[in-house]
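Aim 2, interim progress. The first record below pairs a target sequence with its structure tokens.
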Amino acid sequence: MADARPSVLSKLPGISFATLAATGETIAICRGEPNYYRVESTRTADELNALYGVSQAQARAMLAGVMQGWDAPQVDPARYEEDAGKATEARSRPA
């Protein structure tokens, strides 16, 4: 059986940004690397991701990769795109 990891990693950007919940620090995550890097910026992680063209699904998958390992199922951004679609659908329905 072929290793699915390279195909999943190819769906991810080279870099994304996140905010550490415990400290509020902005971090940079490089695809496939086991560590993250602190970022000193006046911009938020969401602003930096938008600047780099990183979707929310990709950013969540990248955070999962650095925290849980790059072979974890949560590294596939498709898992989060479905969540985003459901959230968009729920918001668009009349109350």
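The second target in this work package is listed in the same format:
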Amino acid sequence: MAGTRDWLQKNFYKFIAHVSYIDLLQLNKNLSVHEILELLNTPELSGLAVKALNNTSHIKMIIDAL
């Protein structure tokens, strides 16, 4: 597989808004959130932002995705 984004588009393309980040992580242990930030919905992004509060570079990537 070429990467997380390709895997996600092949498996969940139209339904991405209905799948949580946690569910995706359980299905794909190699999930790279950085590749799919712009595909995540606002609640998922806000959840990631809370988890990344101590990492300014991750916060910047999340804000850029909004």
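The mean pLDDT is 81. This observation will shape the mutagenesis plan for the next reporting period.
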